[in-house]
Each structure stands twice: as C-alpha cells, then as structure tokens.
Amino acid sequence: MSKNEIAILGLLAEGPKHGYQIHQDIKKREMDYWAKIKLASIYTTLTRLEEQGLIKSEKEKVGNMPERTVYALTSKGQTRLGDMVEKLLVEDERPEWLFGLGVAFIYGAAQERVLTALQLRQEKLQQCAVDLHEHLTTLKGQVPFNWYMLIENAHKHMQLERQWLDELIALVQSEQQWAMSCPFELAATCEQSAPQNGQMTSKLDGAETKKVLSNIK
Tens of pLDDT along 72-104? Predict the structure, then answer.
C-alpha cells in the first residue's frame, strides 16, 4: 500500500471529507513535506481506494455550491488502516541520507569550503530549531498528542544534529584530524602522518563501516 493510500485512509478515519478538504489537510499538516505525500495524485488514489472497497463516496450539495463528492472510510478500510499503522510503527526504514554522502567524501573539497558549508548548515539548523520551538509552544494543548509528538521528534533530532555538527566542525578545523579524512585507498599514506600512539587509524574494513553507518540514521 502506498503512502498516499495510508495517508488518505488515516485522514478519513477522522471523519468524512471531500477531495479538496483532504488536499488542504495534507498541506496544513505539511505531510507533502515530511511524508512526501503526492498532492497531484490524491483523486487518483481516492478512486483506487473506492474500487478496492476501502472507502465509499456519496454526492453532497450545500446551498448554492456545486455538488461535490464526500468520501468516508468503510469497515474494510478501517481494518486495512489498522494493519498498516501497526506495520509502520515497527518499520526499520532507511531513508536516503545525502548529507552522509557529503561527509563520507568530505576530502573532495578544500578544508575552508567544507567549514563554510558546515557552518551554513549549522545556521540553518539553528533557525529551524527556533521556528520549531515556537511552533511547539503554539500547538501545545491545541492538537492531538500524536501530531504534537511528530513535531517534537523533529525538534529533538534537530537539537541532536546541531550538537553532532559542532563536533564535526571541530574535527574539520583540526589540521591533524583533517589529514586523516583521506580515501580508504590512501590509508597507508594517511597512517604515515597519523599519531604514533595507536589511538587513531584510517583503516575500516567494509563490514565495520556498514555496521557503524547502519546505526547512524
């Protein structure tokens, strides 16, 4: 089942809605941003869900307004939603991590350029953290706890990334550490310039790297 289908079933679990209302709910809750819900395919998804018997529709006319189609969740749709929610809550997702690619190949840019880029990222994170904190203050007690906790999750992750980014910037600023960021193929060269106390090595085999990175995201 696609993300769009799950999102629409979830929104209809709140009560019957017409297509435009579903569209507005997704935009208002920014689900097109953090869940990558595709707004352009909402009506196609509604048609598909109705064909599967997961939702039903009826025509509605209010005053002088044009007739519109209102959608509601069926018992079959409620069961499917429950199954999908349970699956999503235990899902071990591995989203794309493009920033991780930048860090992995950090030696591909000059030290000064890397520092400038990381400091710019830190400034953006700081502003986002401020905005999220203000948003949380406004929403507290005004929205269901689960929706509040979604934003709280983003805020806490952002705070943690800012702390981690401070550490990364400090390492990049260190000439000794920067010299150790060379490619694996140049490990021997790196080791020649590494401290001789045995506390640091540039060698990581593939299995170790995979194990470490699998726990980062």
Answer: 999 999 999 999 999 998 887 777 788 998 998
The per-residue pLDDT for range 108-148, each reduced to its tens digit, is 889 999 999 999 999 999 999 998 888 888 888 888 999 99
166: left (phi over 0), alpha (psi -120 to 50) or beta: alpha
- Is 90 exceeded by the pLDDT of residue 214? no
Residue 61, exposed/middle/buried by CB under 10 A (0-12, 13-18, 19+)?
exposed
Determine the Cα angle at 84 with ends 96 and 145, to 5°: 85
Q: Are 155 and 138 in contact (CB under 8 A)?
A: no
Task: Say what the pTM is.
Answer: 0.72
At the topology level, CATH places domain 3-89 in Arc Repressor Mutant, subunit A (1.10.10)
CA distances from 19 to 43, 57, 74 (A): 7, 11, 16
**Inter-helix orientation angle 3-12/19-28, to 10°:** 100
Reported for 94-99, long-range contacts at CB under 8 A and 24+ positions apart, including other chains, are 94/217, 95/217, 97/216, 97/217
For 107, the token pair is 């030696």
Per-residue pLDDT at 31: 92
Q: Where are the domains of the chain?
A: 3-89, 98-181
Read off φ and ψ for residue 18, nearest 5 degrees: -95, 165
